[in-house]
């Protein structure tokens, strides 16, 4: 078993550690634009060594875990290089563009679009966690376009981790993730920016900020390179969700300005009544 992990950050590194747990005798090699990441990944046991083009040609599994815009530039070349029995999986947070790109490739049936709903605000190989994906959700898109035996092999791997599986259309995936994931990152980044713009004394932020602020801006610590690419790739769906969010904020502002606290409280109560929907069920 030869596995090539392209991208050795939080997601790629963590998935490689999962694969090492499942396939202890597998040869796991890595590719990353950062030589430092290659060295770190080797030193902490994520990979044995750096991979070459020959390794891609002889790999059984290639895992692509790079920013979504970079994945789009690499996927066609990767499919050109792989053997007839290799599976290429993409772990990015958007799916429509990459699925459209590979649609007519002669090896389309050897590609599987996946998105793990798991992560932290940290990045790089040292952020990788062997249990990051345990009991988390993995979304698989357009599985009907991938060879059934390759899908079954990946499903078996994901069951070993173990992960919960959800099957979606690529466009539906991007629309729903814009609401429940991408918008929350926009909100976190912009809340952090707003507080830093308004509060000039950073010591006061440190001393006065409670757990609510810390949990809300936690996502703003995420990799800006990764998230700028996601916002770009999923621009239309993010804009749709952002416009609705801005309307709600404007309405909240108007209620405050008009001292309409009765209706403000009603809106808060209405949202609270929906709290069961907002809870994430494991």
The largest sheet, given as strand count, sense and whether it forms a barrel, is:
8 strands, mixed
- Distance between the ends: 32 Å
Query: What is the number of helices?
Result: 13
**Strand-pairing-aware structural class:** alpha/beta
Low-pLDDT sequence parts: none
- Per CATH, the class of the largest domain reads Alpha Beta
**How is the largest sheet built, in terms of strand order?**
3-2-1-4-5-6-7-8
CATH architecture grouping of the largest domain: 3-Layer(aba) Sandwich
How many β strands by DSSP? 8
Keywords:
6-phosphogluconate dehydrogenase C-terminal fold, 282 residues, Rossmann fold, alpha/beta, 8 strands, globular, 8-stranded mixed β-sheet, 55% helix, single chain, 2 domains
Structure, described:
The chain has 282 residues and is of the alpha/beta class. The protein folds into two domains: 2-168, 3-Layer(aba) Sandwich (Rossmann fold); 173-278, 6-phosphogluconate dehydrogenase C-terminal like domain (6-phosphogluconate dehydrogenase C-terminal fold, Orthogonal Bundle), CATH 1.10.3660. 55% of the residues lie in helices and 13% in strands. It contains 13 helices and eight strands. The protein has helices spanning 10-22, 35-43, 53-58, 68-81, 96-102, 148-160, 170-198, 202-208, 211-217, 224-233, 235-257, 261-273, 275-278; strands at residues 2-6, 27-31, 49-50, 61-64, 87-90, 111-117, 137-141, 164-168. The chain has an eight-stranded mixed beta sheet with strand order 3-2-1-4-5-6-7-8, sandwiched between helices. Strand 2, helix 2 (35-43) and strand 3 form a beta-alpha-beta unit.
